[in-house]
Amino acid sequence: MEERGGKFLLFSLKNETYGIPIKTVKEIIGMQEVTWIPKNKEYNKGVINLRGKIVPIIDLRLKFGMEEKTYTDRTCIIVIEIDLNSNQRLIGLVVDSVAEVHNILKTELEEPGENAQIEGDLLMGIGKLNDKVVLLINIEKILTEEDAVLLKSPGEMNGESSIDGENIDSINLNN
Length: 175
Known about the structure:
By secondary structure, the chain is mainly β. It has helices at residues 60-63, 145-150, and strands at 6-13, 16-21, 25-30, 44-50, 53-59, 76-84, 87-95, 97-104, 109-110, 123-129, 132-137, 162-163, 166-167.
C-alpha cells in the first residue's frame, strides 16, 4: 500500500464513493451518444468518437454487477489511459457523477481484506475520508482478457481489420 497514496478522482456509483488514480485520467466529458458494437458484454456499451479517436465505453455500474440506471445530466464519462497489451489505450468509464480530486495519504489507506473484494482484484484499497469510505479501483485490472481482445484496434489484429475472422477488404458489399 505504500505506493498507493496520492491524488484520486472521486466519483459515485449507486450512492457509494469510488476513486481512481488521477494520473490515469485524461479528461471528463458529458454523456454522449455511444455507437453499439455487436457481440460485446453488456457493460461494454460501444464506442465514441473523441476528437478523431475511437474510445470504447464501459458502464462501471454494469461492470460491477449493479442494476442499469438511466443516464442523467450528472452521468459522465471519465476517459482514462491504460496500458493494454503494451499499447496505451483510451477507455471511457461511465459513472453516475464525478465529485472531486482528493489527496488520500498512505496512512488513510487499508488493504481491501476478504470481505471487500470485487471480482478480478479490481479493488486496490479502501480509503478513509473523514466519515466516508472510498473504494479505490485498480484501473489496470478494469478489463478482462476477453475485454482486451474485443477492444483491440484494427492495427493490433495482425495488421488486418476483420469481422468474425473475415478480412474486411474481401467482403463484397455490392451484393
